[in-house]
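DATA SHEET
Item: assembly model
Revision: 1
Owner: S.N.
Input lines:
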Amino acid sequence: MIPTRRARLAATIAVVVLAILPYAVAGRISLSIFVFIGLFSLIVIGLSLLAGHAGQVSLGQAAFYGLGAYIAAISTLRIGIPPWLALPLAVSGAAGVAYLLGAPIFVLRGHFLVLGTLGLNVVMDVLVRNVQSLTGGPTGLTGIPPLSIGSLMIAGDRAYYYLTWTFVFAALWLGRNLVSSRVGRALAAVRSSEVAAATVGINPAFYKSRVFAASAALAGLAGALYVHYLSFVSPSPFAFNFSIDLLVMSVLGGIYQLPGAVAGTAILTVLREALRTIMPRVLGSGASAEYEIVLFGVLLAVVIIFSPAGVWPPLIKVLRLESARPRWAQVAPVAGVLAKSSSSLARPEPTGLLRVEGLRKQFGGLLAVDDLSFHVQAGEIYGIIGPNGAGKTTAFNLISGVLRPTRGTVYLRGRKISDLPAYRRAALGVGRTFQTPNVFPDLTVLENVMVGLHRLTTTSFTGAMLGLGRREDTQAAAQAAGYLAAVGLLDHAGLPAGALPFGGLRLLELARALAMHPIVLLLDEPASGLTGAERAELVRLIRRIRDTGTTVLLVEHDVGLVMEVADRVLVLNYGRRIADGTPRVVRNDPRVIAAYLGEEAVS
Amino acid sequence: MTLTQQLAQFIASGIVNGTIYALLGLGLVAIHSVTRVVNVAQGEFAALGALLASTLVARGMPLSLAAGVAVVAAAAAGGGVYRTGIRPARDAGPLTLLIITIALHLALKGLLLLVWGTNPYGLRPFTAGPPLRILSAVVTRQSLWVVGVTAVALVVLYLFFTHTILGKSLRACAVNPTAARLMGIRVERMSTLAWLIAGALGGLAGVLITPLTLATYDMGLILGLKGFVGVVMAGMSSYPWTVGACILFGVVESLGAGLISSNYRDGIAFGVLVAALLWRALSVLRGGLIVSEETAQE
């Protein structure tokens, strides 16, 4: 996402307003509320990155905030580490704990992080309150020194105001770089379909755990700044309730745009403060707390019901600050991109490029694939046909790693791949498409293909945050445009992928799979739902893919198409092989005729 | 007391607590399976039931009637919350719905605070008499009421889900709302029903536990959270496994608090939860599986 000129102008105005604010409000409002908005914004930016871009929810960000605070407090007070060194210690401590928790948990799909972080928050709170010798217990620790660099002492509202907001803008910048990079596209892919992301070589847990660690680092930073600012620390600000507050702030602002995090934080903090000062005046000092909670809950519910995506998207619309999506500067020559495909033709494998041995998959009582063995030679087009429920798609899922076989082995170029996860198999050169096209609808058509280039590009997580992947991105966009041209979709490159018609989705998936330069490409019913003209184009395309060196496996109900393009055909029925050979041989096999037309047709 | 006696005692009180968590957990499962909402306000139904029953009994209403009124009121609160807060936003994502239930939790808690204030309310045990001795544990009569009434509620729930058209329709909505709608089931009505059931179960939990612990306006959140832990441990959708997981969680919590220190009660319970999650994750890692079976079936 590239900011428009209008967006840059708005950002500049925001910076200027924030820069003069301490002088504008001097003597009227305490600056501390703005310091806190900044501190909370840091945490909420991390949380929005996690929820909006990694698709994971943490109910324990307050724990990392607290971890940063206590690491800074304890290391300066009890160990005597200088504050400027305690700051990075707090940041890396929080990030480290998050990584150790996240890396295993993200292997489990679903929202287990909610539970893990919730647990962590409660455990943290209990420990901080009870390990008194270290943390000072419920009363906490006092006398924490302010930050200082050499003889320069950072103390007072104004100093921490500027310091905090500098970090906020740095976080926004780093976050924006990340989101609009190779890593950001990978995250978007994982968010919309982990299965599809894994089959282009993206390891979902890898990126999720890094985003989670980054979000914890921001929370830890906020915690450390907090203790040096206030010079004391006690357990209550870091309890589970505050984690809920933080999540509310991020959703209120809108989790898909990072500046929304600042907006949500500001609104909630100011609203809280306003209710606290206004309610006693309206109702007398006695009953204010009760009404405050009710009103707060109701307001929050109303805002979310009317603007489920938070306040930022409507705000952007009113101010017309939409960002532009990436474009391609040039279209890489198609022949070039396709020809680079693979070296598999040069090295014929004696036992076949892809070899399947004794493959079996059982779903409860159903044997979907039963003792299946076959091998495919390099440069072949290998068709797999069979009636509905014959196990064709299951076989593809077993080869590509979407399912784990009950028994049996898959070899690629003599290497056993059946115990590898899907993303590793993709990295070794197994590409695939899905029976129901599985594209990433939030990304543009071009970006979808750029995700296919994921494993051929190298920008790291840190590099992406620092904005170092731009040149590589330009090249990737040009290459992706080349693949789009090859399948005839270049005119739609800027559209959101979800807006393509059905045939377009199939072609886009194909372009994405080609972009990863697969050695073996598994096409699952590529012709279904295509018009006559599109089907003819598909036949040409499949041949062209093979001619550039990629071996093609083709599952298809359109038997005519398979007989037309395939070199050899495997026929499955009830998960077992009933025939294989050249199209001519298979076509006349009585068992095949029986499977398709019934026993009577044979006799 | 010998260690065996102590252990028996801890396990017994763990089972009683776990039973309460289970009632809340079952409500969460009912709501989540039909409407895909994780309801943070679940514990407030228990707080409402507890406070209402206490007040009614204090004003002279017979206990059984007061309990009935409290359960019905909590059920109505469940249905009302769904109609006013959730249904208008039912097409929003799960995270948005989660935030709405957080908002509802705050609003309900505030209302309870307005009506009942911060004082704790008590309720007399359902039957008077000295505690009983079961194996080597001393068990109050109210504890038996908790376990007994919950067992009856479970049987009723089981019969409802397996032997009535309404119950089967509810299960159909949980499995596949679109197919259920095509079969002529009014999914909207079933969603309301799920929230009514969840409210009633929550209210029941509140009424049952008050004689043991006292009722306060803010008792809900932690009860609901512990029920939620059981629900997630059991995989978000199974009623029987949820009951088992909640009781297990209650026992672990009680053992930890008893054997180590009650200051660490919640810390131990949630620490075990984190450890269990990590253990499960590492065993999956060893299996080399990256994409789960059910997603591949989509």
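QC remark: The radius of gyration of chain A is 29 Å.
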